[in-house]
Amino acid sequence: MSTTNGIIGKSVKRVEDKRFITGRGKYTDDIILPLQTYASFVRSPYAHARILSVDIEAAKAMPGVLAIYTGADVADINGVPCGWLVNFKNGTPMKEPKHPLLVADKARHVGDAVAVVIAETQEKAKDAAQMVMVDYEELPAVVNAAEAVKPGMPSVHDIAPDNICYDWELGNPKAEVDEAMSKAAHITSLEFVNQRLVPNAIEPRSYNAQYDSTSERYTLYTSTQNPHLIRLLMCAFVLGIPEHKVKVVGPDVGGGFGSKIFHYTEEALLTWASKKLKRPVKWTAERTESFLTDAHGRDHITKAEMGFDKDGNILALRVNTYANMGAYLSTFSTCVPTYLHGTLLQGLYTTPKINVDVTAVFTHTTPVDAYRGAGRPEATYLLERLMDLAALEMNIDPAELRLKNFIPPFDGVTQPGYQTQVALQYDSGNYHGVLEKGLAMLGYKDFRKQQKEAAKNGKLLGVGFSTYIEACGIAPSAVVGSLGARAGLYEVGQVRVQPTGKVSVFTGAHSHGQGHETTFAQVVADKLGIPMEDVEIIHGDTESVAFGMGTYGSRSLAVGGSAIVKSIDKIVEKGKKIAAHKLEANADDMEFANGKFTVKGTDKSLSFGDIALTAYVPHIYPKDLEPGLDFSSFYDPTNFTYPFGCHIAVVEVDKETGKVTLKRFIAVDDVGNVINPMIVEGQIHGGVAQGVGQALYEGAEYDNNGQLTNASYMDYCMPRADDLPMFETATQVTPCPHNPLGVKGAGEAGAIGSTPAVVNAVIDALWSGGHKVKDIRMPLKSERVWRAMQTTVN
Amino acid sequence: MQLTGKQVLNASPSKVWEKLMDTNTLARVIPGVTTLERTGENSFVSTLQIKMGPVNGSFSGNLQLEEITEQKNFTLKVQQNSKIGNTNAAIKVDLIPVSSTQTEVSFDGDAQLSGLLAGMGQRVIGGVANTLTKQFFTNLEKELEAS
Predict the structure, then answer these.
(1) Which 3 state secondary structure label does DSSP give B98?
(2) Alpha-carbon distance B78 to nearest alpha carbon in chain A (angstroms)
(3) Which region is the signal sequence (chain B) (predicted)?
């Protein structure tokens, strides 16, 4: 491969920010098409109710109303599919109920769509939606996954009377784990809830569907993270329309955090309705509608036990989890608590015996799916809470306990990858390095002195550790296929060199805040030795981009970037042939560096621009070579990538009120090679803010009737800048050995590592004051911390 | 959502009871009532207009008196629907004589909210309920003084 011109590794300012911060981003809701119409949904106010009748007559008579559709109108259309099949332990397939575009018989969560009104304006659609009279018979609801499986509870779906979607197990046989556990000198056990979170992308979900009766083609503008996947799912599984007749565009998208990966019912419904009406139909969620209908994250109820020998060496880990699926299976919901959670329970440790048992459960709540980290934050929370708690219980230093149990460093090149007990093989790692760096940044020895001093002065100071690993760069298609994925998870990168030497790059990855237009351009400019301004990154349109799998699982650079590098390699190889011909040399004797094709050992060279022009004006040209300089590549990774790191939180707890103040936050992340340090730091900052949000502020609260009682910003507390200290961040670089850029991915790390660090810090602070609390339920609101202090002996 | 409260009124239990059982009085003292019609011995249909912060809407539905013990207690069953959500409540009301001229009225109940009412934050709704309760007692006191 070529040498670089040095742009890789520089904190280049994000090229997309100019349009974003000057209000010129173009989002789906900004798109107004000729003859535009607007949709408004009639949604169930009940979590579980039989729909006795839907009276649309009064609404239909209102001015500007064009159509009203109910569940009966779409009864013959398939529901939206689930993209990942998980089998029961006994081998039978999971229960997979239909998720209809509009419900006809029963509403199964608050916000379930019963009807849609389409009108000339948004206001008219909303007014008429209020006039649709639905007669409900309210039925008892179930919201808690561990409760839902008990006998006699209401069923969400007839096909799963016990509400179990699947049960699943991974790791060593239970008997082996039980035996190892029986030999433990100490067992730390913890029962906890990893609470449900609402994703809260700043841009609500928005769709605008158009049908052109001349060409008989559809266009769907959608605030999505993966346009090609939406097109595939919608065409092939829901509407049965030919894929080549559909164009899906994901324009500027204001954040997703996972919630915009999935194919939502509204996308297919609007596309279907646009043909019925022969007019474009647009819908944008209101904030409370987003709270009720965007797929939520987390929601695990877990019991975990870790056994240690007398010296603190881990002997075994046993895990039982109830994972809440919500009322229907969202696109990737089924793989989150299994293949993105169970497989990560080795953590950074040499734990010899691991068994994880997961039961996925239907409830009368909003569907749950991937949210920043998806399964890996739950795994990290489980392990890292156990480690800090075990350290407290055994009176061993928590850092020392980790260092003792870490997998030794391995580079994955001269040393093999690390085979875990839970299916994965880690690529490369240096776990001691990140923790030691974090301890140095913290000034650990000094901190323990400060903690003692503070305790004397009546203040509770605590430190919490979290060392995490994630499986990113999702994913090797054959591997995920064998685990139940219903799609390949490669990525596509096309590099089109224009005759003038300017370069258009088409990627199937999709940027919705991550900064691909900058990072990817840095890679291309560096590899081709041309200025960044000469590179345009094009994404988010199924017509211009050949194919793609979109953005999630910290995969864009590791998989999408690698596809682009493959195409660049092909461009350079062809360029060498063209240059060799013009310079009357042998292609094997050509080298490419700094934007120049040179005959090795001579000063004979041609610029990249010369070769580009020659490729399109092939007058002096190799006889057996096609003109043009345009290559497309599919890159299917050979393994996941495994970023890791160490997060440390320092908190102060007010003894009188229980209020937690986050004083310091240290993040040392190893995401492999870094293309743009500023963007990586930004990703870490955002992720940490969300992770701290889960620890201290956020959480969807359902009452026993299945009502989401904090479905607005009045009651759902998001972290704000003034809640957070200045983060202290650092990176360590352990390159990924199996992709050409050596990158591992940085999008989710912050949200994965931070949550347990903060909770551990609060527990540590309480123990320092003599309150030997095992767990406080997240979010750690002042009241909960205060109560924990009152109920424990000081 | 729990609904609890109590107030000592300057009237005998029999007087307070009489007022609470009188449709016309109730229509005047319950905040926001636009119509209240008796449909049976102990049942009513009602419409209420309530506007307070995020709670703004026209509620319509049924009120039902059950488990009546003359001059002592009764249970009020409320079922109200609106565009912003529905309410189902059962509220037990107790009259406790304090003296021959004073009666403590206390109530204890549970309201189940749905839709926007539930989602917009029961914290806010709770505040609204408290304010409405105060208004109710103030109005009732005035009625008792006037008679």
Answers:
(1) strand
(2) 16
(3) none
CB contact under 8 A, B123 and A714: yes
Number of domains in chain B: 1
CB proximity list for A692: less than 8 A, separation 6 or greater: A649, A662, A665, A719, A723, A724, A754, A755, A758
Return the exposure string of B116-125: e unless at least 16 CB atoms fall within 10 Å of the residue's CB, then b: bbbbbbbebb
Residue in A with minimal Cα distance to B115 = A45
Minimum Cα–Cα distance from B123: chain A residue: A715
Classify residue B147: in a domain, yes or no.
no
First vs last C-alpha separation in chain B: 34
CATH 3.90.1170.50 residue window(s) in chain A: 31-139+202-255+260-292
Using an 8 Å Cβ cutoff, are A704 and A766 in contact? no
Domain spanning A16-23+490-635: CATH 3.40.190.10 = no
Distance CA A154, CA A142 (A): 6
Q: Is A492 helix (H, G, I), strand (E, B) or coil?
A: strand
Q: CA A426 to CA A643: how far, in whole Å?
A: 10
Chain A residues with CB under 8 Å of B121 CB are 709-710, 712, 714-715
Among B83, B86, B119, the residue with its CB nearest the CB of A712 is B119
Torsion of the alpha carbons at B107, B109, B114 and B117, rounded to the nearest 10: 30
The tens digit of pLDDT for each residue in B54-78 reads: 667 888 999 999 999 999 999 999 8
Q: Give yes or no for residue A339 having a pLDDT over 50.
A: yes
Q: Does A288 touch chain B (CB under 8 A)?
A: yes
3-class secondary structure, A525: helix
Q: What is the DSSP letter of A252?
A: B
Cα(first)–Cα(last) distance of chain A, in Å?
64
In a mutational test of the A interface, the residue from B58, B87, B114, B116 whose CB has the highest number of chain A CBs within 10 Å is B114
Specify the domain boundaries for CATH 3.30.365.10 within chain A: 16-23+490-635, 300-475+639-790
CB atoms near residue A90 (< 10 Å): 6
Size of chain A, expressed as the number of residues it contains: 794
Q: Do A710 and B85 touch (CB under 8 A)?
A: no
Contact indicator for A442, A647 with CB cutoff of 8 Å: no
Longest dimension (CA), chain A: 88
Identify the sign of the CA torsion A261, A264, A266, A270. positive
DSSP string covering B28-86: HHSTTEEEEEE-SSSEEEEEEEEEETTEEEEEEEEEEEEEEETTTEEEEEEEEE-TT--
d(C-alpha A549, C-alpha A224), whole Å: 11
Q: What is the pLDDT of residues B81-134, one digit of tens each?
A: 888 888 889 999 999 999 989 999 999 998 888 887 887 766 677 778 888 888
Question: Going by CATH, does the domain composed of A300-475+639-790 fall within 3.30.365.10?
Answer: yes
Question: CA-to-CA distance for A767 and A759, rounded, in angstroms?
Answer: 12
CB within 8 Å: B120 and A45: no
Please determine, looking at this structure, whether the domain spanning A31-139+202-255+260-292 carries the CATH number 3.40.50.620.
no
ipTM summary value? 0.72
Per DSSP (E only), the strands in A363-427 are 418-419, 425-426
Residue A135 in contact with residue A56, Cβ under 8 Å?
A: no
Residue B70: which CATH number? 3.30.530.20
What are the C-alpha distances in Å from B127 to residues B87, B132, B141? 16, 9, 21
Distance, in Å, from the CA atom of B101 to the CA atom of B119, rounded to the nearest integer, reads: 43
pLDDT, tens digit (0-9, with 9 covering 90-100), for A24-42: 999 999 999 999 999 999 9
Residues spanned by the domain of B12: 2-142
The token pair at A267 is: 């996308």
**A-chain residues near B124 (CB < 8 A):** 714
Classify A744 as helix, strand or coil: coil
